[in-house]
């Protein structure tokens, strides 16, 4: 594959390494400083754009590629309120758009474990439920996209909650799931869900040891998406 990297920061660099080690080529490495290079690319030679940039840049980057018929694999977090626009454009251009808040296989297994635990605990009203995520200090958005996906899994199973709320030390209503976001270097991403009662606690944690799992997932999805059309997710890619 010939891969265009929209965003060439911490993630883009690891993705390039993994992609090249699997025999792929890199069509361009786009950052905030060299966006003009987009104009000189040979569009027809690009098989996929992998987009890991920043929340405020994601829609523009993804739209640029989709409107040229280039399939996009995106992992940028913090922009999903605008996802319907991209879904509509994907349909209009008859191409493919794949989004995941987290591309690591381990986290996607953890999503299933989280939802199963939430369903087991749905009548256990003596347990208070909370979530904590820890990331490096350069992270722009809070809570993390992964924490939001985990929260959506809990909300789907626990009727006591109407929404989640970022815990910034304020009072949080009982019908809101509190998520605390800590920024500590060099944490690549740790997510913990705690069910706490007077009698005991149940806690599940996923700890990423590096960014390799996220980057490998994005490359594998880019290979898989080559013969696909439409709006796709990890549930389409993983068969569990
Ligand atoms: N879904 C997943 O599995 C994962 C998602 N992420 C998300 O990916 C995104 C990127 O993460 P990092 O690589 O750690 O960030 P980073 O800050 O190291 O890199 C961001 C890159 O985007 C570029 N950029 C910024 N504005 C741009 C613009 N307007 N147009 C083009 N490029 C622009 C920057 O120049 C830089 O190259 C974040 O939103 C992060 O939350 C990170 C890890 C895993
Ligand atoms: O910004 C990061 O680093 C990460 N972002 C994603 C998120 O917001 O969930 C995925 C991973 O946790 C790393």
Automatic annotation (TrEMBL):
<feature type="binding site">
    <location>
        <begin position="145"/>
        <end position="146"/>
    </location>
    <ligand>
        <name>(S)-2,3,4,5-tetrahydrodipicolinate</name>
    </ligand>
</feature>
<dbReference type="GO" id="GO:0016726">
    <property type="term" value="F:oxidoreductase activity, acting on CH or CH2 groups, NAD or NADP as acceptor"/>
</dbReference>
<feature type="binding site">
    <location>
        <begin position="100"/>
        <end position="103"/>
    </location>
    <ligand>
        <name>NAD(+)</name>
    </ligand>
</feature>
<keyword id="KW-0220">Diaminopimelate biosynthesis</keyword>
<feature type="domain" description="Dihydrodipicolinate reductase C-terminal">
    <location>
        <begin position="106"/>
        <end position="238"/>
    </location>
</feature>
<dbReference type="GO" id="GO:0009089">
    <property type="term" value="P:lysine biosynthetic process via diaminopimelate"/>
</dbReference>
<comment type="similarity">
    <text>Belongs to the DapB family.</text>
</comment>
<feature type="binding site">
    <location>
        <position position="136"/>
    </location>
    <ligand>
        <name>(S)-2,3,4,5-tetrahydrodipicolinate</name>
    </ligand>
</feature>
<protein>
    <recommendedName>
        <fullName>4-hydroxy-tetrahydrodipicolinate reductase</fullName>
        <ecNumber>1.17.1.8</ecNumber>
    </recommendedName>
</protein>
<keyword id="KW-0521">NADP</keyword>
<comment type="pathway">
    <text>Amino-acid biosynthesis; L-lysine biosynthesis via DAP pathway; (S)-tetrahydrodipicolinate from L-aspartate: step 4/4.</text>
</comment>
<dbReference type="Pfam" id="PF05173">
    <property type="entry name" value="DapB_C"/>
</dbReference>
<feature type="binding site">
    <location>
        <position position="29"/>
    </location>
    <ligand>
        <name>NADP(+)</name>
    </ligand>
</feature>
<dbReference type="GO" id="GO:0050661">
    <property type="term" value="F:NADP binding"/>
</dbReference>
<dbReference type="InterPro" id="IPR022663">
    <property type="entry name" value="DapB_C"/>
</dbReference>
<feature type="active site" description="Proton donor/acceptor">
    <location>
        <position position="135"/>
    </location>
</feature>
<keyword id="KW-0028">Amino-acid biosynthesis</keyword>
<dbReference type="GO" id="GO:0019877">
    <property type="term" value="P:diaminopimelate biosynthetic process"/>
</dbReference>
<keyword id="KW-0560">Oxidoreductase</keyword>
<dbReference type="GO" id="GO:0008839">
    <property type="term" value="F:4-hydroxy-tetrahydrodipicolinate reductase"/>
</dbReference>
<dbReference type="InterPro" id="IPR023940">
    <property type="entry name" value="DHDPR_bac"/>
</dbReference>
<keyword id="KW-0457">Lysine biosynthesis</keyword>
<dbReference type="InterPro" id="IPR000846">
    <property type="entry name" value="DapB_N"/>
</dbReference>
<feature type="binding site">
    <location>
        <begin position="75"/>
        <end position="77"/>
    </location>
    <ligand>
        <name>NAD(+)</name>
    </ligand>
</feature>
<dbReference type="GO" id="GO:0051287">
    <property type="term" value="F:NAD binding"/>
</dbReference>
<keyword id="KW-0963">Cytoplasm</keyword>
<dbReference type="InterPro" id="IPR036291">
    <property type="entry name" value="NAD(P)-bd_dom_sf"/>
</dbReference>
<dbReference type="GO" id="GO:0005829">
    <property type="term" value="C:cytosol"/>
</dbReference>
<feature type="active site" description="Proton donor">
    <location>
        <position position="139"/>
    </location>
</feature>
<comment type="function">
    <text>Catalyzes the conversion of 4-hydroxy-tetrahydrodipicolinate (HTPA) to tetrahydrodipicolinate.</text>
</comment>
<comment type="subunit">
    <text>Homotetramer.</text>
</comment>
<dbReference type="Pfam" id="PF01113">
    <property type="entry name" value="DapB_N"/>
</dbReference>
<keyword id="KW-0520">NAD</keyword>
<feature type="domain" description="Dihydrodipicolinate reductase N-terminal">
    <location>
        <begin position="1"/>
        <end position="103"/>
    </location>
</feature>
């Amino acid at each position: 594959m010939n891969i265009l990297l929209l965003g060439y920061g911490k993630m883009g660099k690891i993705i390039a390494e993994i992609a090249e080690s699997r025999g792929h080529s890199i069509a361009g490495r786009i950052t905030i400083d060299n966006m003009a290079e987009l104009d000189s690319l040979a569009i027809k030679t690009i098989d996929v754009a992998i987009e890991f940039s920043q929340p405020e840049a994601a829609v523009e980057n993804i739209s640029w590629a989709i409107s040229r018929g280039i399939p996009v694999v995106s992992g940028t977090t913090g922009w999903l309120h605008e996802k319907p626009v991209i879904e509509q454009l994907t349909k209009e251009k008859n191409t493919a758009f794949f989004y995941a808040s987290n591309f690591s296989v381990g986290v996607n297994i953890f999503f299933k474990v989280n939802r199963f635990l939430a369903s087991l605990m749905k009548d256990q009203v003596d347990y208070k439920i909370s979530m904590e995520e820890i990331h490096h200090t350069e992270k722009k958005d809070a809570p993390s996209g992964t924490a939001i996906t985990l929260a959506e899994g809990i909300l789907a199973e626990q009727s006591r909650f109407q929404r989640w709320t970022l815990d910034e030390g304020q009072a949080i209503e009982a019908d809101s799931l509190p998520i605390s976001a800590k920024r500590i270097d060099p944490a690549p991403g740790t997510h913990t869900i705690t069910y706490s009662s007077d009698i005991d606690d149940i806690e599940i944690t996923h700890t990423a040891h590096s960014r390799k799992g996220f980057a490998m997932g994005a490359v594998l999805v880019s290979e898989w998406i080559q013969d696909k059309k439409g709006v796709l997710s990890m549930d389409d890619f993983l068969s569990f």
